[in-house]
Amino acid sequence: MQNFILVDGALDVTQIYTIWYDIAQKKNCGALLTFCGIVRDEEGIEALSFDIYEPLLRQWFVRWEEKVAKQKASVFFAHSKGDVSIFQSSYMAGVLSKQRKLGLNLINEFVEDFKACAPIWKYFIKDKQRIYAKEQAKTLKGFGILS
After folding, report:
1. pLDDT value for 137
2. Using one digit for the tens of pLDDT, what is the confidence trace for 98-139?
3. How many CB atoms lie within 10 A of CB 30?
């Protein structure tokens, strides 16, 4: 599925954007809005590392596909598994729509919902140690033994 991409290590941003751009051309859409997350060089971080629960992530994405289809739009998602060094990309999101206004609204909502709901756990790599980014973690609604 070209709309949903998971890769080991850093994303090839140019390759992924080209895939999504080709889809936009074939669908004759006027707006392809993308977000690209890049690992920053701060606080001694050498890299970020990600664990993903793929079945639940795919369910989340399918719900988004169904939601935007009602508005004649499409969503795109790419994320890294494992380690991603500073200055590399670990996350891309995209929205394809006929016009920019709808796309601009959807891309913001999509990225915010991803941050709140996606079953992806982030770790900092510092001094070659993998440290869970607990302060940036969010509880997934409806999951866990106390939910």
Report:
1. 53
2. 999 999 999 999 999 999 999 999 999 999 899 998 776 555
3. 11
User: What letter would DSSP give residue 22?
Assistant: H
- Rounded to whole angstroms, the Cα distance separating 74 from 102 reads 11
Q: 113-138 burial by CB neighbour count: b if 16+ within 10 A, else e?
A: ebeebbbbeebbbeeeeeeeeeeeee
State whether residue 106 is helix, strand or coil. Answer: helix
Tell me how far apart the alpha carbons of residues 116 and 137 are, in angstroms, rounded to a whole number. 9
What is the C-alpha to C-alpha distance for residues 49 and 4, in angstroms, rounded to an integer? Answer: 19
> φ, ψ for residue 82 (rounded to 5)?
80, -150
The pLDDT tens digits for 69-96 are: 999 999 999 999 999 999 999 999 999 9
